Amino acid sequence: MKGFVNIYKPSGMTSSDVVVKVRGILRRATGEKQKTGHLGTLDPLATGVLPIAVGNATRLFDYMQKKTKVYIAMFKFGETTDTLDRGGVVTCVDGKTVNSKDIELVLTDLVGEIDQLPPQYSAKSIGGRRAYDIAREGGIAELKPKTVSIRSIEILSLPETEITIQNERYTLGHNEFAFRIVCGSGTYIRAIARDMAALMNTVGYMTSLCRVQSGDFFIESSVAIDAFESEPLKYLMPIDTALKDYDNLILDGADGERALNGVPVKCEKEYNQPFTVNVAGQIVGIGETKDGYMRIKTRL
């Protein structure tokens, strides 16, 4: 068994909790232990798209990390918490009120290839310890900025208005705005709230977060855990679901056999790399070319 399950993660569960749940459901459905793994962590308080790879699809993790992510995030300004989200303890209240014009003036400084400092409450490893463990003990982790890609930030809703996400209605409070954020892997949305507030000479934190897209997986086609449990095999998506944008090399006969056995195959055509390799009508791996030859780099 191999493929993907596009789970809608509820608030209150860790991404690892969801993986364990999906693994157990598939084991009961098939009578066999299934290898599973998620393709990008969502914080426990966050909701939304959490793609789960099954079987050999777990080998695509590094490729999937390069995919675009889209979030709907709510930020509240004028106060902040130690975790930079609603699950933390309020540490500062300055009472400053901001408006959409204030925000629009600073958005250009937050978009592009930027250096972002991870939150103190993050899973970054510092000397073999997680930053959040250091923070919980009252310490300060020595974190270094990391370059992340933020494609766009758009204001969706203003304070005292309503926004609906996946049939759930959310009422924004005072000084609270909703944003649509398009970014690359490794971006901390909580850190955007912190940095956006700092550019407006105030403080802020993330009150809610929903991932609506992760690469080729969209919230419209996601499935709740309960629905997946009732018909698990119905929601198993084929492995090529996440490979639609890749060039595809079709090999027949002897060339297909050689490639499957790890032998380089002559390949004169230029392909965007990486690309999929198709043998006998089935995608069998991710290929790479060098000096006019190709080989399967990742077997699926």
> SSE order, as H and E?
EHEEHEEEHEEEHEEEEHEEHEHEEEE
Q: Structural class, judged by helices and strands?
A: alpha+beta
* Poorly predicted runs: none
Profile the largest sheet.
9 strands, mixed
Q: What portion of the residues fall into strands of 2 or more residues?
A: 35-45%
- Overall 3D form: globular
Query: What's the total count of β strands?
Result: 20
Give the count of helical stretches.
7
Give me the CATH superfamily of the largest domain. Pseudouridine synthase
- Name the CATH architecture of the largest domain: 2-Layer Sandwich
Task: Compute the CA-based radius of gyration.
Answer: 22 Å
- Just give the CATH class of the largest domain: Alpha Beta
Helix content: 10-25%
CATH topology of the largest domain: Pseudouridine synthase
Q: How far from one another are the termini? A: 11 Å
Detailed description of the structure:
The chain is built from seven helices and 20 strands. The strands form five sheets. Strands 1, 2, 3, 4, 7, 10, 13, 14 and 15 form a nine-stranded mixed sheet that branches. Strands 16-18-19-20-17 form a five-stranded mixed sheet. With 300 residues, it is α+β, with helices and mostly antiparallel strands. The chain is 19% helix and 37% strand. A hairpin with a 2-residue loop joins β14 and β15. The chain has three domains: 91 residues, 2-Layer Sandwich (Pseudouridine synthase), CATH 3.30.2350; 146 residues, Pseudouridine synthase (2-Layer Sandwich); 52 residues, Archaeosine Trna-guanine Transglycosylase, Chain: A, domain 4. The mean pLDDT is 91. The chain is globular, with a radius of gyration of 22 Å.
